[in-house]
Design a protein that fits this description.
heterotrimer; B: 363 residues; mainly alpha; two-stranded antiparallel sheet; C: 371 residues; Rossmann fold; seven-stranded mixed β-sheet; six-stranded parallel β-sheet
Amino acid sequence: MSQHLITSSPSSSPITSSPQHPSTHRPAIAMRDISKRFGTVIANDRITFDASWGEVHALVGENGAGKSTLMSILAGLYRPDSGAVEIDGQPVHFRSPRDAIGHGIGMVYQHFMLVEPFSVAENVVLGERRSGVNLETARVARELTALSEKYALGVDPQAKIWQLSVGEQQRVEILRLLYLGARILVFDEPTAVLTPQETHGLLRNLRGMAGQGFSVVFISHKLDEVQEVADRISVLRRGQIVATTTPAATDRRTLARMMVGRELADFVARPADEPRAEVDRGGAMLELRGLSALGEKGLPALREIDLEIRSGETLGIAGVAGNGQRELAETVTGLRPVTAGTVRIDGKAMTNRPAAEITRAGVAHIPEDRLATGLIGGMDLSANAILRDYGQPPLCHGPFLLTRAVSAFTDRLLTANDVKAPGRWTKLRTLSGGNQQKLLLGRELAGEPRLIVAVHPTRGVDVGATEAIHDALRAQRARGAATLLISEDLDELLALADRIAVLFAGRIMGTIPTASADREQIGLMMAGIESREAEVVMDV
Amino acid sequence: MSNRLTGSPAHRLRLERVPSPSRGATALVTVLSFALALLAGGIVLALAGENPIAVYLAMVKGAFGDRNGVAEVLVKTTPLLLTGLGVAVAFRMQLWNIGAEGQLYWGAIFATGVGLFVLPAAPGWVLVPAMIAAGLLGGGLWGLIPGALRAWFGASEIITSLMLNYVAILFSEYLVHGPWRDPGAFGFPGTPPLPAAGWLPNLGTTRIHLGLLFGLIAALLLWIMLRRTRWGYEIGVMGENPRAALYAGMPTKRTILLVMALSGALAGLAGMSEVAGIGHQLQRNLSPGYGYAAIIVAWLGRLHPFGAVLVAFLLAALTVGGDQLQMNLGLPAAIAPMLQGAILFFLLGGEVLTRYRLTRVIG
Amino acid sequence: MIRRSLFAVLAGLVLTGGIVTSLAGVAAQDATPAAEPFKVGFVYVGPVGDLGWTYAHDQGRLALEEGFPGIETGFQENVPENPADAERVIRQFAQDGFDVIFTTSFGYMDPTINVAQDFPDTTFIHISGFKTADNVGTGFGKIEEPRFVSGQVAGAMTETNQIGYVAAFPIPEVIRGINAFTLGVREVNPEATVQVVWTNTWFDPAKERAAAEALLDGGADVIAQHQDTAGPQQAAEDRGLYSVGYNADMASLAPDAVLTSAIWNWGPFYSDVVQQVMDGAWESSQYWGSWQDGVVDMAPVAEFVPEEIRAAAAEEVARFKSGEETIYTIFTGPLLDQSGEERVAAGQAMTDEELLSMDWFVEGVDGDIPT
């Protein structure tokens, strides 16, 4: 999080690219007629995909469209059932990721594979099998410095990983792959974890890499980024490439339609500009005063938070991951002890009350990581559906669960929330992220909660499901529920929130009414910079 | 795919969970595993100069060839089943209770104490239920210790329950050599015999005793509990995803205590039924390691109560059939455990392969 | 999910089991021999290769096979002493038509009695126990006699006047052996003491060895033992010190350490029993054979032992073999216990009952009997 933060916003900064027509380039990757099936599911259906040297080729598609499978084949994790892969014109048959790396293919995943207490150079040395001597680190550090300068990555090889921001860690990953000799870089939704400024920096890096002759494959849901950075865009739907186009020849609305195969109501509209439906506001449903709590490592994660949300109001919390969002949600919902301050829900003191009691008070919780907290991947849909209500009639009678009632309850939940699944006996883990989230949301919102704590409700969810989830949250607001919406997606906050508060290092940097929100200003606050304007709007 | 623990981005083999193994594949793998085990054992037998088919037939005949064989298989099934059920219910919640052996001994000690000292003159309809209760209590309390240490101090129940086994076994040895020793046995270790009213009735002239019924009833009740009750559901959720249990406001600590107590109580019942159904006294070497075999029973039975019934029976049949190898065929004694080991190894291996697949990954 | 895959496993097992069972049926029809030979079964607590207790019994079995060429013998090693397993194995022998079954460890006593009730036509001999029935006899030997003589050799050889004794369990059989050995030691060397360590196991080579090492560390220079293996002998051999073997002649295992061994010679007893049963003349009894009867013996004294000690031992052996000396002459008063109190008056011999329930150590034993 260094030099890029102070630069201007994406709109005012022209990206240095000169997209030549791709066909004039030699193909770096050529995948022909790739098919891959898992059981009865055809993940890739005779896909032909190529990317040239010096090109950024974006791959877009809903979750489950087959993007990950295709890239896993490229990375040597899966072998295709049929079809051929060529790298730089040579046919290849990867038997392992090692083979793929040997051919210069580097994957940047959403989750970084870095050891936090180690330095950048040490992390890179760890990746080298042949190393093992301390002296190596110094040599590696010198090479890394050179690479970092050459590709403008701004990474200090001596820095410890834990000192780095998410964006910097991502650049460490890139640097590591470059060091290992990668010339084809595949990015799997790289901007999901970044601030707007970091995103801008990354996109600039991507263009820079392409400019140096690298081949870049960019997987994303965010169509504006795709439009901004890509030379070519391929759209995947249900295991097939439905279109390959260029940014100039298309627009976001068209892309979205191709991805989901239908029109979307307001997916590409600027929801922030739309007037909020007026809702009758009640009293303060959630009231936090001087709230403090510790994080996983026992260090202060929340510092004297003051917040208030009224009925029918949605308060958005913006911020870069790891600035206290998770702790905020957990203290409100009773999963994490409060060390100082008070939580009042509907006027009643709820500080450090058990989670079950807070739930009974009408609080719904859509947690950050649905599979880690809100759902049970290894159990069937029924077990997941009844997680909140299993202890109450009509689902149980005395100690017994009533099978028929559970089944009916589950079926109703699945139908009402449009969860696509073979049946209630299906294991939750086998559902797509979107369907998992719809089930979770449906369950949490079924009881007409008075307060909703929603954390990243659409993370890793495809466009269609995102729309459904946003609609559900709007409906709750209209019904009069107070919502604490924590999201790293500024568009989502702008679309749903009445006010946006920015969390940085466990403190509220400021709260801005959405109507007068300015992305630039929020971005600066997310980076911990209190601009004069930000202070002014705090008092609004 | 994140690898923050080791940080090594090197490639390696990894077992990846298969979301839902198909029914056909599971059956096929099981049959194949069994066949492979027989084949591997057969090769060893052939190398030892034996006809493998004849050896296997002798084993089957020994276990199922006559009434006595079947009866003995069921006798052996009883303690394996009860301890296996106890272990399975704890494992369901990812509580790794390795202490069934010690819990079995405490069940036996409590039951013997009631029979010899508390209610020595009571009629059977009082004494047997009292001894059952004592067995459950003894094992349950012993299971509660690692449970409490885990719930309140986060101590690993693997270590504590394992270590407590030695305490239990040595304490029972102290009793049978010392204060509880039968004064009429010329100083030989072992308690006096239990009053006959406390003996579990046998089925006909076989050694099958009421303990088998305890095991079957316990399996049925456990199945109902796990599948049809709120408590069973909570155990399942806590086992699969403890954070989700916390999120749903489930009483985690209380459930750890109760499950460990239940797990121990079932093992205690096994100890009680061995004492009251077979030996009719507390003595040294009460268990040849049922509490450890229980882990295999639970695991191979996929932590399902009816699976435990099946596997306990299979293990018992392997043991009883294995007797034939030396007794009638004159093979070295080590052959029987070797064949049993091979069969279990292949079954467990096959089990892993149905639930996981081997992949190579980065990092 | 668990249920579905479980039934798949079940189906698989049933299928496999079905095939095997049907094959078994076919074979079972084939195997119907015309005339059953006379069969003798042995239930062993350890492996025959232990060169100790079970080895000695197996030597008896082999002697039986040699003496009765027409008979068939079978055995099962490593049978645990818990009632569930022991009774099953004994029952299986009976079920399989064995005519005589020797159960060779104390822990098999009650299981033997239980099985015997259901098989009245089968003869059972339980080694080392005290319960009998119409078709159950017991068999044991007065190993104390050779132990006493081996004690004399040990008492003559010790330089530190400390002799270690690795003992399994504090039961009368073991206590009696320790006392007889100690009386032998003290007869030739009143200054010497016998230090006892309990292992609480019959068969655990490592533990037995460790116990012997502890005794050697404490200053003992001769190790005697009442265990099932030669672990203690090997510990003495490694230290260059002496030991007295038990069960079988252990000289081959520790040639420089073993002075002599008190040994079992089961062949004659087994042969007698089998002959009597074959003749229909067997009756239940408590057999407690002496050195004179031949069921116990002492291995030759090692050649490195000074000539005069060997000569003295040889004379003593001759007296026992002739019946001039017996276990009763060994345990004849005055006998003092560890506290110096007189337990047997001068000139008085202990009775069988007193010997069989002996629960006190004679003077000169350094150790406790746990209660």
